[in-house]
Amino acid sequence: MRVVAGRAKGRPLKSVPGMGTRPTTDKVKEAIFSMIGPYFDGGTVLDLFAGTGGLGIEALSRGMERAVFIDMEPKSIDTIKANLKSTGFEPCAEIYRNEAGRAIKALEKRKYIFDLVFLDPPYRMKNGDVLMTEMATRGLLSAGALLVLEYESSYSYTEGINGFCHLRTAKYGETTVSIYEYEQLESESEKSGEEE
């Protein structure tokens, strides 16, 4: 694995030791960034099931300003730290060892707002849509934020998730990627309509 493009292009990335993680391949990573826009002009990215940190690091390399990496596994946390060090992105990154649901609550308390979110949960977990809605409810997403949901190709999420516009879905072997844009939860849009 390596950084595909941007400031740290070509830098190799360490894998997490053992067989517990399933890193996004360079081919899928390249495809994701061609779908969401190859380069960014600032913004904050959340890599929620970070693993090696490869997706968040790629976003930093391509112009995102700050990144937050969350993972439960100590080996993953060590690997993310090593990869941030080797790519030179340590100063613009924060790493937390936490379970995704608890992390979302902690990020709300810290008043984070994200412009890009990567959700690549273990294949046994089928709650990507629940986590997306939770982030929206807790005010963690900027208007127009992009969410990249990676999951097993044998599974499918509904395109209609409250508050999100489904942009596209693409399959790469056993991995499927769906891209959503955050619009607004219906209750929020109703409130703003009442205020007018």
Number of helical stretches of at least 4 residues: 6
Distance between the termini: 51 Å
How many β-strand runs? 7
- Uncertain runs: 189-196
Largest sheet: 7 strands, mixed
Radius of gyration from CA coordinates: 16 Å
Secondary-structure content class: alpha/beta
- How would you state the average pLDDT, rounded? 91
Order of helices and strands: HEHEHEHEHEEEH
Characterize the structure shown.
By secondary structure, this protein is α/β, with parallel strands linked by helices. It is 32% helix and 26% strand. The protein contains 6 helices and 7 strands; from the N terminus they run αβαβαβαβαβββα. The chain has helices spanning 26-36, 54-61, 74-87, 100-109, 128-137, 186-195, and strands at residues 44-47, 66-71, 93-97, 114-119, 141-152, 164-172, 175-182. Strands 3-2-1-4-5-7-6 form a 7-stranded mixed sheet. 40% of the residues are buried.
List the defining traits of the structure above.
seven-stranded mixed β-sheet, 6 helices, alpha/beta, 196 residues, single chain, disordered C terminus
List the helices and strands and how they pair.
Layout: H1 26-36, E1 44-47, H2 54-61, E2 66-71, H3 74-87, E3 93-97, H4 100-109, E4 114-119, H5 128-137, E5 141-152, E6 164-172, E7 175-182, H6 186-195
